[in-house]
Amino acid sequence: MVLRRGRPVAMATLLLGFTAATAGESVVIYRCSDAGGAVTFQNDVPCPKGAAQVRRVMEVAAPVAAPAIVPTPAVAPRAPPAVVPDVDTRSPASIAIAIPARLPPPPLFECRTWDDRRYLSDLASPPERCAPLQTTGVGGIAGMGAGAACEFVTDQCAPVAADALCDGWRLRLREAEADLRFGRFESRTAAQAEVARVEQVARDSTCGE
Fold first, then answer.
1. Which residues contact 198 (CB under 8 A, 6 or more apart)?
2. In the predicted model, what is the mean pLDDT of residues 74-97?
3. For residues 108 and 170, is the Cβ–Cβ distance under 8 A?
4. Nearest Cα residue to 17 out of 38, 49, 40, 37
5. Residue 29 — very low, low, confident or very high, per pLDDT cuts 50/70/90?
6. In 10 A of CB 166, how many CB atoms?
7. What does DSSP say about strands 26-33 and 38-43: parallel, antiparallel, or unpaired?
């Protein structure tokens, strides 16, 4: 290899002479300059006679091992999201419905009127009623132009025993239904409302179980 004086020498060119050397060995490089100024580099061969010689010993470094290529781990495919079937929220099996605890039936009273008629009521003190009085007419004869009179009296009521309340409310319902069926037409609306009320009391209590 011949280089002209004054020109730079690339490192790749300098290494060509000893790339064949084994790693760890010494390589002798001779730099030769002839009379005309030409410069040559020689491996392990001295310069010819008449040429200026510069001798250099260089150690060949062990080649750097290429970094190991670590394979990229395969990414497992993600499972598709689970499909949740549609649930009919109106179905009894899909929802829990809280049912309030049933309570014992309300108190009930057995009442007796002034003329010894008996009935059931959920009022301990029913309204007063007017009991007719016997009147006398002219000459002390009853009904002879004597008119009519009455006396306000209160029905006598006693509470129904706790263990008989359910039977009492069922009887109360039958009484209300009889009033609706056989009562006067003008009181039919009130009788219907009373039947509905007594039915609900019995249904919502422990009597409805």
1. 169, 172, 173, 176
2. 61
3. no
4. 40
5. confident
6. 19
7. antiparallel
Mapped to the 3 state alphabet, what secondary structure does 50-63 carry? CCEEEEEEEECCCC
What gap in Å lies between CA 171 and CA 161, rounded to an integer? 14
CA atoms within 13 A on the CB side of 133: 11
- Asked whether the predicted pLDDT for residue 9 surpasses 50, the reply is no
Adjacency order of strands within the sheet including 52-59: 2-4, 38-43, 26-33, 52-59
pLDDT confidence tier of residue 3, bands split at 50, 70 and 90: very low
- CB atoms closer than 10 angstroms to residue 107: 13
Compute the distance between CA of residue 64 and CA of residue 57 in angstroms, rounded to an integer.
Answer: 21
Six token digits for residue 183: 């009562």
Share of the chain above pLDDT 90, in %: 19
pLDDT-derived band at 8 (thresholds 50, 70, 90) equals very low
d(C-alpha 31, C-alpha 56), whole Å:
8
